[in-house]
Amino acid sequence: MNFEKLKIKAMLFVIVGMAGLQAQVVVPSTGGNAIGSGGFVNYSVGQVVYTSNIGTNGSVVPGVQQPFEISTVTGLNDVTGRSMICTAYPNPATNVVQLKVDDSINITIQSMRYQLIDMQGKLIKTQKIDMYLTEIVMSSLIPATYFLRITLGNKEIKAFKITKN
User: Any idea where the domains of the chain sit in the sequence?
Assistant: First the structure.
C-alpha cells in the first residue's frame, strides 16, 4: 500500500513540476545585427537576465536569438486603373503551382512574364505567360521557399512567396 501511495505522489510531483516548466521566454523591446571590422553580433535589448564572458580579444554578452523574415508582396494599381488580380495556388506546393491572372482585366497577357527566384536571389526559371491559367512545374526543385515574381513589361505587378514541400 505504501508503494502505491509513493507511486501516486511521484506522478503528481512530476505532473506539477512539468506544468511549471517553460522554455526561454523573452519579450525584447528591440534587437538587430551589429557589423564591424572584427565580425558581427546579433543582439536583443530588453532581456532581463544576462551573463558576460570576457576573453583576451574582447567580451561577449549572450542574448536570445530573434529570428526574423523579410518578405514583401507588391502590387501595381495603375495597370488598368484598378488593382490587378493574380493568384498563385496551392501554397505550400508539392509538384505544381497554378498562376491565375484575372481575365476581366483589359491587358494583353502576352506581355507578362513570371520569374521563379530562390532565397539567395538566383533566377531558377523565367517564362512568358501566354494563358490566364499557367502551370508552373516545381517537382524538380528541392523543398524550400521561393519567390514568384510577375512582371508586365519592365514593371513588377505582384510577387508571391511560395513554399515547396
Answer: 28-68, 86-164
Cβ–Cβ under 8 Å, residues 26 and 64: yes
Mean pLDDT of the chain: 76
Q: Which CATH number fits domain 86-164: 2.60.40.1220, 3.40.50.2300, 2.30.30.370, 2.60.40.10?
A: 2.60.40.10
- The larger pLDDT score, comparing residue 78 to residue 161, is at 161
Q: How far is the C-alpha of 77 from the C-alpha of 159, rounded, in Å?
A: 14
Predicted TM-score (pTM) of this structure: 0.52
In the chain, the largest separation of any two C-alpha atoms, in whole Å, equals 84
Where do runs of H (alpha helix) occur along 34-153? none
Q: What is the pLDDT of residue 114?
A: 93
CA torsion through residues 131, 109, 161, 119, sign? positive
